[in-house]
């Protein structure tokens, strides 16, 4: 996710994600934050409902 934000030129948001969100993000719990960052949580959700955040 951090790499995606950086590739969009959103370095400040990527820095915030690295600093404040857990390494593994629950797409249900963090759905509103993901939407605020311009990331569609439904497109990221795996079978487990979690995704790597800062890896």
What can you tell me about this protein's structure?
This protein is mainly alpha-helical and 55 residues long. Helices cover 47% and strands 11% of the residues. The protein has helices at 2-7, 11-20, 31-36, 41-44, and strands at 24-26, 50-52. Strands 1-2 form a two-stranded antiparallel sheet. It is globular, with a radius of gyration of 10 Å. The termini are close together. The model has no long low-confidence stretch (mean pLDDT 81).
Mean pLDDT: 81
Give me the number of helical elements. 4
Output the structural class: mainly alpha
Q: Determine the strand fraction and express it as a percent band.
A: 5-15%
> What is the H-and-E element order?
HHEHHE
Can you tell me the residue ranges where pLDDT is under 50 for at least 5 consecutive residues?
none
Number of strands: 2
Helix content: 40-55%
Apparent shape: globular
Largest sheet data: 2 strands, antiparallel
Within the largest sheet, what's the order of strands?
A: 1-2
The end-to-end span amounts to 8 Å
CA-atom Rg in angstroms: 10 Å
């Amino acid at each position: 996710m951090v790499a995606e934000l950086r590739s969009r030129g959103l370095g400040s948001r990527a820095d915030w994600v690295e600093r404040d969100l857990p390494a593994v993000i629950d797409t249900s719990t963090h759905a509103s934050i993901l939407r605020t960052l311009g990331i569609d949580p439904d497109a990221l959700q795996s079978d487990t409902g979690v995704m790597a955040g800062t890896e």
